[in-house]
Queue: 2 jobs
Job 1
Amino acid sequence: MMTASARTHTGRVRPHNEDAAVCRPEQGLFAVIDGMGGQEAGEVAAAIAAAAIAEVPNLPHLASETVLTAAMKEARARILRQAEAEPSQKDMGAVATAVRIEDNGRSIAVAHVGDTRAWITNAKGVRQLTHDHVATGDSAGASKRPVARDLGRKTMEGDWVETGRFPIARGDLLVLASDGLHDAVPKEELASELVRLWREGGDADAATARLIALALARGGPDNVTVVAVRIGRFRRGRSPRRLGFAVTVGLFVAMAALAAVALFGRRLPPVVQLPDRVAVVTQFGSPPQVQVEAGKTTTIIGGAHLDVRGTQVRGIDWRVEVGEGATLDLELTTFELEGALTIVLAEGAKLHVEDTRVKAGSVRIVSTGTGEITLRDVFFETTGAPGPAYEGPVVPEQTHVIVLGEAPPTPEAPEPPDAPPIPPAEGASPKAPGTP
C-alpha cells in the first residue's frame, strides 16, 4: 500500500519558515514550495502557491501535465495580485515542484519552476526528475546563482513551467525537497542516503525524518521541507486515513497554507471573537478567523455545544471551561497561540479534537470528573512546555497524537556511497551551495 509523508523544519539559522508542502495521497498529488521575499512575504507566497496546487481538480480528460501547469500559472497570478495589493510584499515569489501519480501508480507527471527538486529511487539507482532554473553567467559575491524562474516574476517568456512524465513501480521511493536539503547535503551523500532508504523498504515517514535530520546535521542553513512517497497500490479517491498517520502531517502543511492564504489574501475574511459564554449550539468555521486576546475565557454552560471547525484560531491565550454535560468539538482547525491553551472539563463534559494542529506556549487539559476526551490525528507543538499536560481522572483516547517541535535525531555518519552521484537532468546547470 502506498504511504506518504511531509515534514518541514525552520533549520538552525533562519528565524522563519518560508517553505510549504502539499501532501494529498488520495489524489496522488504532492508538492514542495519554497517562498522568497523574506519573513512574512515569503511565507505568504508559499502559502498562496500551496493553496493553488492543492486545488488541482480531478479532470480525467486532461493530462496531468496540463492540470499541474494550470495550477502553477494560477499560483503565479494570485501571487502577483497579492503583491500588487500589498506594497510590503511586492518582491515576494516562490519556487515549486509538483507531481501527480497517474496510470494507477505506473507513472507520474511533474511540473517544476525554480530550484526545488524531485528524485525517484529504485533498483536502477537515483534519478533526478528536475533541473534547477538558475541564472546564467557570473554572480559575483553571491553564495549561489539566483533562480531564473519563480512564481512571483512579472515577466517570463515561453513555456516557463517545465513538465515531464516518468515511469514508476511499486516499491519506488519518490522524494521532493526544497533546497534546504540538497544545498546542505553533498550530492554523493544524498544519493547514498536515498538508496539506503529505498533498500531498507521503510515507510515514507521514516524517509522524511531521516532526510530532515541529515540536513540539520549538515548545519541546517535554510528551511528544509521534504515530501516522500513509497509507491504502492493507488486509486485516486482513496481515503488518506487508510494510508497511515504520517500523511496527515502533510495535510496540515497544506491546510496551514490555505489558512495563510485566507489571512493574507486580497479579500480578507472576517475576524470574529470567541464568546465569553456559550448557552446553545454554536459553530465557528470557515471562512471566519477567530481571534483571542490575553486571558480570554469561554464558558460552555451545561448541555451546550461549541463547535470550532475548519478555521484558524490565533492570538494569546484561550481558556475553555466546559460545563456539566457540555461538549467542545475542535476539527480541521489550526491554533497559533503565543500563550496557553487550557481546557477544563466538568462532570460528564466531552472534548473531541480531530484533524487539528495546535501550536501554543503550553497546552493543558484538565478533567474534574467523568466525561470523554477523544484526540484523533492531532499535532501539538508547544514552545514553552514539554508537550501537552493532562490532569484528572479521565484518560484521553488518543489516536495518532504527535508532539512536534523537536528536531529528529541526528543520523549516524553515512557509510561510503553505494550509488553513483545523482546526475542532473538533461540541460541542467550546476548550482553552488548556499541559500536563495
Job 2
Amino acid sequence: MQFTPRFELMNEYLYHPGRACSFICLAFVSLLSYLCPAAAQESVPSPGPPQKRAVWITGATLHLGNGGVLSPGLIGFSDGIIQYVGTGAEIRLDPTQADIIDASGAHVYPGFFAFNSILGLNEIDAVRATRDDAETGAINPHVRALIAYNTDSRVIPTVRNMGVLLQQIAPQGGLVSGRSSVVQMDAWNWEDAAVAADEGIYINWPSLRVYDAPWAPPAEEQMKSTQQTMERLTKLFDDARAYVSARKPVDVRKGGDAASAVDINLILESMRPVFSGQSRLYVRVDEARGMLSALNFFSTYGIKPILVGVAEADEVLGELKSRGVMLVLGRTQSLPNRAGDRVDARYRLPYLLDSTGIPFSFSLEGAWEQRVQVFQAGQAVGYGLPYEEAVRALTLDAARITGVNARYGSLEVGKSATLFVSRGDAFEVMGNRLTHAFVDGRRMSLGDKQKGLYRKFSDKYGVERPE
C-alpha cells in the first residue's frame, strides 16, 4: 500500500518506516516486565506520582542556574511549581503541612540538559533493531524523533541519576536529519515526556575542507561532491520559501478543507515552521569556515541558525559574537581539529566563549554518553570557566536555546520544580551522588540497572554498601 502525503499530514506524520523496531523493542520490554517484574522494576522505575504535599529543602547550597548561588539556602515548591527561593530567615516550617528535606552540606541544582542526544532512540549500538535514531534518505525534515522515543529504555535511569533530567532528542544522518524535541526524563510514554515537541530541525552542514590523505578521494571529487550537496540544500530552501509564500497552512483537524490537502508536499510543508520562526534550525558544523558559510547561507533566507559542534569556534569568536549566534558545543574532551593547536584547545573553548559573551551549552553525541557531559562542564571549570557559568550552560542557557526557559532552567519562583540534590559537587565524579530528584515536582526514583547489579554482587561478595 502506498501512503500519500495527505495521509501522512492528516495523521500528524505518525507513519514512520523506522518505527517497526520501536514496537518490537516495546514488545520485548513488556514481555521482560511480565516474566521478570522485579528485574524490570529495578531497571526502569515507574515515573513518580504527582506532587501532593509541599516540599521544602533546607540547608543546601542552591546553584540557581542564572549565575547566582545561595549558601545556605531554602527552596520550597508545591503543585510542581517553585514557590520560594531564599535564605529562609522569614520562613517557619511546619512538618505537619509539608515534607522537609534536610540537605545540609549538599548542593541543589536545576535539572541538567543533554543536547543533540539519541538517548531513548538507541538502546544497544550493536543491535540494529534497537536503533531508531536515523531515517533513510538525505532530506527528512518531516521525520519526528519524538514518536520514536522509548521511555522504557534501561539507559535513561543511569543518565538521569547524574542529574540530567531533560534532553533534546535529535535525529541523525543525512543532509536534513529531521525534527528534534525536548523531553523530560521521567515519563510513561513519549506523549507524557514531551516538553517542546518538534522545536527544531537538524541539518548536517557539508565539510568545505579538502583532505589530502591516502584515504581521501581526489580533490576535484571532494569539491564536486560539496558543490552538489550545496546545490541540493539551496534547492530545498528555495523551493520551501516559494512553497510557504504560495500556500497557506491547511489543518484538516481544525476544519480545513481536506480536498486542498491532497497535493500538499510533505517535505516542503515541514519546512514552514522554520520560515515562520516557530521552529529553530540547528546546523551541525565544526569548521570555522563552515560556520561562516552556514551563517551567510541562511541569512539570505532570514534565518539565524543555532550552530552545533563548533570545534573551531575560537577562530571566529568576533564574528559569532557580532551576529548574536547561540552555540551548542560538541565533545570538548577531545583532541584539537587543527595541526599546531594546543593539546588543550578544545578544553579551553567554553572559557573563551564565556569570556566573549557568547551563550552556549554542552552536548555529546550518543546515548549513554550523555552522563559524561556533566564532567565536561567540570573540566571546563578547571580550564577557566566560572563555576556558576558552567551550571548556567547546562541549565538556563540550554533552556533558552530550546525555548523552554519560561518553565525550566533555573531555580526561580514560578518555574517548574525540576531539580536535584547532590551530596557533593555534581561536576566531580565522586561528588555527583544524587539523594533526591524531582521532575515537575514529582519525586523521581533513583533506581537503575547499574545500582541493582551493584547491590546484587555486594551481597554475593559481602561488600559493605555506602549509604
